[in-house]
Design a protein that fits this description.
Layout: E1 11-15, H1 27-39, E2 43-46, H2 61-73, E3 77-82, H3 98-102, E4 107-110, H4 114-125, E5 129-131, H5 143-154, E6 168-171, E7 175-183, H6 184-187, E8 203-208, H7 213-225, H8 228-231, E9 234-240, H9 241-244, H10 253-260, E10 268-275, E11 283-285, E12 288-292, E13 295-299
Parallel strand pairs: 1-2, 1-3, 3-4, 4-5, 7-8, 8-9, 9-10
Antiparallel strand pairs: 5-11, 6-10, 7-12, 12-13
Helix pairs in contact: 7-10
Length: 304
């Protein structure tokens, strides 16, 4: 199921589904992001509880579910950008009406903890969702650079092909599948739940924020023990902030993954096109992707 593309002048909805604005002092970014989009000729509609602070979360689970459903069912709203990530996006998944969401398909975008919501919506409705910038990103210094990617994807229907000069082939091979991901730690909250998409023959896109080499080992061991590596067709690894910042010499995620999957033959590609504290590419969750001769290519339509 595909959402309609965005047009200049459309209404964009903003909902808080994880951290509160006030947990990490992001209110000024919030105001700047609102002004940024209005200057780009979009209307912005905020959820009722977007400025709530409930133990550092953007409202109770009931409030988050209420805001999210109202925004999804509002036909004036053509796209929803999640406020920001955090730790509590999984708390309200069981309160959503997925049958109603199916009747009102629209663009849904965010990253980090929002990974949880993107996977759940895709699994329960079949709607292609999007890993990409959160609303707060547009109140930060690289907002214009981030907006160019946003505009290319959602208005012009053009996606980054993840083949910039930073791309590396970790294990070669040709394959294809649907995209699942992107934040590794958050996605693992869904293991064993009804909200994790079927991993058979799919391509796993992964990145991390505050992750150590030991945490990589633990997570990859968990995925292996859960049988995920037996199912997937390939892995694309994005930017891993703590492991890569300031020229760190830590073992990198791709090296650890190679060790934990040495008996497998699926391709592994490393790029720096998505992750934390960088300008993010737009990645369609549920979109078709091909890895061929070291190139990562999004196939087919991802919007109407």
């Amino acid at each position: 199921m595909l959402a309609n593309k965005l047009n200049y002048g459309d209404t964009i909805g903003v909902v808080g589904v994880s951290n509160s604005l006030f947990l990490n002092n992001k209110y000024n970014n919030f105001i700047r992001a609102k002004q940024f989009f209005e200057n780009k000729n979009f209307k912005i509609k905020f959820g009722k509880y977007v400025e709530e602070d409930y133990y550092g979360s953007c409202g109770t689970k009931e409030q988050k579910a209420e805001d999210f459903m109202k925004m999804f069912l509002d036909d004036e709203v053509k796209a929803i950008i999640c406020l920001e990530g955090g730790q509590t996006c999984n708390t309200f998944l069981d309160l959503l009406d997925y049958e109603e969401i199916k009747k009102h398909p629209k663009i849904l975008v965010g990253y980090s903890d929002i990974t949880v919501l993107l996977q759940a919506i895709y699994e329960k409705t079949g709607l292609t969702t999007f890993s990409g910038p959160d609303f707060i990103s547009f109140g930060e210094p690289k907002a214009e650079e981030q907006y160019k990617i946003f505009e290319d994807a959602f208005i012009n229907k053009r996606l980054d092909k993840f083949n910039n000069e930073n791309k590396k082939i970790i294990r070669n091979g040709n394959t294809s599948g649907k995209i699942i991901g992107t934040n590794l730690g958050c996605m693992m909250y869904l293991l064993g739940t009804e909200y994790l998409p079927n991993m058979n023959d799919n391509i796993l896109f992964i990145e991390s924020y505050k992750t150590s080499p030991n945490e990589c080992q633990r997570r990859f061991a968990h995925l292996k023990q859960y049988g995920i590596f037996d199912k997937i067709n390939g892995v694309v690894i994005g930017y891993n902030y703590d492991l890569q910042k300031d020229g760190n010499t830590y073992p990198q995620m791709e090296n650890i993954l190679l060790e934990y999957t040495k008996e497998y033959k699926f391709p592994i590609i490393k790029c720096n096109s998505f992750g934390h504290k960088i300008v993010n590419s737009i990645i369609p969750i549920g979109g078709n992707v091909k890895i061929e001769n070291g190139k990562v290519m999004i196939e087919d339509e991802f919007l109407k």
